[in-house]
Amino acid sequence: MSKFRNAARWSLAATAGLLVAATLPLATANASTARTSGTTAQVPDRYLKQKLDWTSCASGALECAAMSVPRDWHHADTSPAITVEVSRHRATGTGARKGVLMMAAGGPGASGLKRPAGLAKDEPTLAAAYDIVGFDQRGVGGNGTTPVVCSDQATVDSFFTSGDLRDRSDQAIRQTFERARAFVRDCRRNSGDLLPYITTDQATRDMDLYRALLGVDKISYYGPSYATFLGAYYATEFPGRVERMVLDSNIDFSGDWQSFLKGQPLSFQRRYEQDFLPWLAKNDATYHQGRTPAEAKASYERLRKALHDHPLDLEGTLVTPNHLDVAATGAMYNAKDNFADFATALEVLEHPDAAPAPARKAIADQLQHPMYAGFFADFFSVTCGDTPWDRSSRDWIRDSAKATRDYPLAGARELTFTSICAAWPHTSAPHIKVTGKNLPPVLMLNSTHDPATYYEAAVRAHRALPTSRLVTVVGGGDHGQYRNKNGCVDTFVNDYFLDDKIPATDTTCAANPLPMPGS
User: Fold this and answer.
1) Over the stretch 187-212, which tens digit does the pLDDT of each residue have?
2) Does domain 31-147+197-255+430-510 have CATH number 3.40.50.1820?
3) For the packed helices 321-331 and 293-309, what is the interaxial angle rounded to 10 degrees?
């Protein structure tokens, strides 16, 4: 029974990150104006001269403080204040200091507050040389940051527990748009004054205020996933403030949200069919899902149909085919952490009576909330608020039908997500054209089969930063390369942060080997 030991470790919350699809161009504002208007010389004194009241947090490993920022940086003199929670891990070394290393979280919607503690623990040489600092991006509540609030958890659950997202009937499509409009009404009712300001452009200015309050002229930066978008925007608006920058698992920040997100159904399906299913078939003796990828895929579809016809009551959680798809997309993010656990979950869902009670309970708890309400609210605030969206229901119905047919694993939920942005309040967020002008060397990382930040988009982002070097992790598809137990990648990053060494040209690292069953 050892294979049941960690039957539900895969992260379902991660599947919300970057899973919208279909898009239009950004608004067109002048990026050079945005850069000059965001400098600290124009920050009102009540923000620039505030003192951060540091107190112990995160089990004593970090210090945390509340930072006051203007709700609207473009009218900072008259805008009311909101709060952004920040953290730091002071440099532990007694030798030469490298300065401040700022970390940001992905999503958008994930918490970044505690992340400096993890980096300091895993990389003590960095912790010795840098003050490692983090923050919860504006809108990410729960740690003191002013939260954006939309619908309650039960309402968010209903997006995934009602019906089957592959259903293309008129009634199902109508209900999808109705739920989307209701969600946006909840956002406007609960956070209406805040919604226009939960954008990447506004967040970069929070970052630069934080830099100023730390008393440094420049920062080094590490950002994964959505934080590559945030980092590229910061580097464009404040190029003179960047000393070193690592962008890990990259969004195509040279374009817009919609053109990037339109590629995700394909990349999740690619990871599923080219990495997971062959691995599952190879380990049929353990998981009994089929001896070939085609047989394993058919087994998944049989289970999905069974859940469609008769949802499974698993320890009080009514499991639907949508739950299965959410779990599958979440499992694609990291092979070592997720493949074996998701394969075990497939067995449990297929034969629940034969599984140990703890395994059933663990999986039921993971499946209970496909997306968390707070993450859901911030995710859409940023992705819908950063860019204007096509509001044509006809376009979304047509595009989502094709995505559902061609790439069903993630494509089936396209209409669920895009219908929210189609109903979102009109945005006035400026378009920031990322050029890489006046930047030092930038190190970029990406795997070839990354499901969320797919490689083709990373290459386009790389081209937008002329000073960048791209380390391609070949033969795998994990999302997030640094601190993923890949010595080749970690050496490149640490040499860059500690000794300013960067590859002379683009280069590669081999991916981690796929896990053995039960590992």
Assistant:
1) 999 999 999 999 999 999 999 999 99
2) yes
3) 140
